[in-house]
Amino acid sequence: MITLKVLHTTTYRFNEHVHLLPHRLMLRPRESRELRLISSNVTVTPHAALTWAHDVFGNAIATATFQMTASNLVIASVAELQLDAVAWPVFDIAVSAMSYPFRYSDDDWTDLGALALPQFSDTAGVLRSWAQMFVRGSRTDTLSLLKDLSVGVSEAVRYQSREDEGTQTPVETLNRGWGSCRDFAMLFTEAARMLGFGARIVSGYLYNPEQQSVGSSNAGSTHAWAEVFVPGAGWITFDPTNRSLGGLNLIPVAVARDIRQTIPVSGSFVGSIGAFAGMSVEVLVTS
């Protein structure tokens, strides 16, 4: 078990005083069997009223409402937590799901819903054909298949940080041969769905003390990965960017069907054309 502190600061700069509309904040880490949240505090400058709720996935969402104009907006989150993920997890997969293909129970299939359905167009069958390459026979070990798929993403796609917003479609990522961690995660998730698995996107932070993991140039950064639901084992974590299995050094904040649903800070303002001067994001993860 390791105790970590996560500092996440987002700063917006304007060339004039603007009227800030409500902002949606997704910054509180998700508690689980492997993550115990000791404290979490979000501060907003200028002052904002914060109201909290949970979205359909159970993520903690804060809405910041402002009463004054401002030329700068600073949103700072400080979280302290204990992480208890192991380096080499063992998964107790149900006998019925040890070999692929398998059938989810009727209840599981109903509850997985859209998480088990492809979300992007693949009219030419590019992604489906690519995903099928990892199925080694009529009966394939399920966990080995998913491991191969995760490694296959990093073999097919070169990591490249992207500062622009949004995510490439999985087919775009395959065709271009490069992408960021969120593109890797979306490609893996969508390929798993093509094979009939229930899968979801996870966003949060990567703790990288040795600076050996891909996706962070410092000891910590924001990061995206994926989880696949396998009967018996439940949600299994895959980080295709780093070819890793399990939640070691990963701090989840949000799970969702699509990466667009996991943006840490989103909102708008009212001002003149050219009022926006820029933004910066600083993330620090320390033990």
Q: How does this model look, in words?
A:
The protein starts with a strand and ends with a strand. By secondary structure, it is an alpha+beta fold. 36% of the residues are buried. It has helices at residues 106-112, 126-132, 142-156, 170-176, 181-194, and strands at 2-20, 23-25, 35-45, 48-54, 60-66, 69-83, 99-100, 140-141, 158-159, 178-179, 198-207, 220-230, 234-239, 244-245, 250-256, 265-266, 269-270, 276-286. It folds into 2 domains: 2-83 and 263-286, Immunoglobulin-like (Sandwich); 95-262, C8orf32 fold. It contains 5 helices and 18 strands. The strands form 5 sheets. Strands 1, 3, 6, 17 and 18 form a 5-stranded antiparallel β-sheet that branches. Pfam families: Bact_transglu_N (PF08379), Transglut_core (PF01841).
Quick summary of this structure?
This protein is α+β, with helices and mostly antiparallel strands and 287 residues long.
How would you describe this structure in keywords?
287 residues; alpha+beta; Immunoglobulin-like; C8orf32 fold; 2 domains; 5-stranded antiparallel beta sheet; 18 strands; globular; Transglutaminase-like; peptidase activity; Papain-like_cys_pep_sf; protease; hydrolase
